[in-house]
Design brief:
The protein is built from 4 helices and 5 strands; from the N terminus they run αββαβαββα. It is of the alpha+beta class. Strands 2-1-3-4-5 form a 5-stranded mixed β-sheet. A hairpin with a 4-residue loop joins strand 1 and strand 2. The structure holds tetrahydrodeoxyuridine.
Length: about 130
């Protein structure tokens, strides 16, 4: 059974995660909260590095936490930034691997939901695991 989506709660968890963002270079904290199919929520923040490309985004932090706990199926992710920015391409791709239909809630650090879309709308005709079968 798919977990119920409590949007306000998911955004609140993403905001809490953003407070741990390690962002000495960009000063741009991002928080994410990923709702797995069985109902557990995984928070994540961006973690930057002096070797800039080694930085990991908040969404992928949450995703790798979840997958490393055995989760493979997701209902939704909330992403919070001060500007209401959308997930980057790498995060879209990583999330698409598991649940192309998951809901993506884009919100501000104040908790305002800017919009909500299905991941496959953010990554149309995405490349997923089944492509490797052809
Ligand atoms: N960032 C994320 O955490 N998620 C995204 O989807 C876009 C960008 C982070 C990476 C970097 O720490 C900061 O935002 C500025 O790019």
């Amino acid at each position: 059974m798919k977990a119920d989506l409590d949007r306000a709660q998911l955004v609140a968890t993403a905001i809490a995660a953003s407070r741990h963002a390690y962002v000495p270079y960009s000063r741009f904290p991002v928080g994410a909260a990923l709702l797995a199919g069985e109902g557990r929520v995984y928070g994540g923040c961006n973690v930057e590095n002096a070797a800039f490309p080694s930085t990991i985004c908040a969404e992928r932090t949450a995703l790798v936490k979840a997958v490393s706990e055995g989760e493979l199926d997701f209902v939704a992710i909330a992403v919070v930034t001060r500007s209401g920015g959308a997930p980057c391409g790498s995060c879209r791709q990583m999330l698409y691997e598991f649940s192309p239909g998951m809901r993506v809630l884009v919100a501000t650090l104040e908790g305002e939901i800017c919009y909500e879309v299905a991941l496959q709308e953010l990554l149309p005709r995405g490349f997923g695991p089944t492509e490797l079968d052809g």
